[in-house]
Amino acid sequence: MIRLNDFSKISSNIVGQAANQYSTPLYIYDEALILERCKECIDMPHAYGLIVRYAMKANSNRTLLKLITDAGLHLDASSLNEVIRASIAGVPYEKIMLTTQEVHTGAEREKLEDLLKKGLRYNACSLFQLEMIAPYAAAENIDIGIRIHPGIGSGESATRNTGDDYSCFGIHLSDIKEAHKLAKKYGIKFHHIHVHIGSGADTKIWRQNIDL
Q1: pTM summary value
Q2: Contacts 24+ apart (CB under 8 A), 136-141
Q3: Pick the CATH number of 33-211 from 3.30.240.20, 3.20.20.10, 2.30.30.240, 3.40.50.620
């Protein structure tokens, strides 16, 4: 059994007091522990600079988002709604990267274009997304990112592996030449490369992805 004080300084007395004051169910967050973890990530050794991004889909509580970004982390959003939510929480667009499977049209497309002009970072996750956004990015002189699917990865299980041959997260390595053609066609530059390595923790697979 894991005891609360094994990883947090919040005591059972505090939990009881919170339950009595606010009733249950409720969530209690350890601010000191969160800030400690943020610092550990930011202080990781690096040779060429490091921007640590928190995945909003883990928890988009506005107080947490502000706490984490004020500590120096940036955000990774998986939907346009998450971007808007982060902005409402007070996070500047320059600290938000949108990495999504969505293809925005109509009013959502207009909103996306407006946010890109305000500093939002964007990852093209498919050739279709790339061709849809490239003309606008070129016209506005906005550099975007490209998400690469290396074809290998590791997962928690065979059915929960978002980085292997059967996943669809990113432009596959075999389509890189086509992505280059589109970039040249529209005159855009890729600001960064994003590689999705799956939901597992196999460091050998991570290294294979880096080599690829």
Answers
A1: 0.86
A2: 137/186, 137/188, 138/186, 138/187, 138/188, 140/113, 140/116
A3: 3.20.20.10
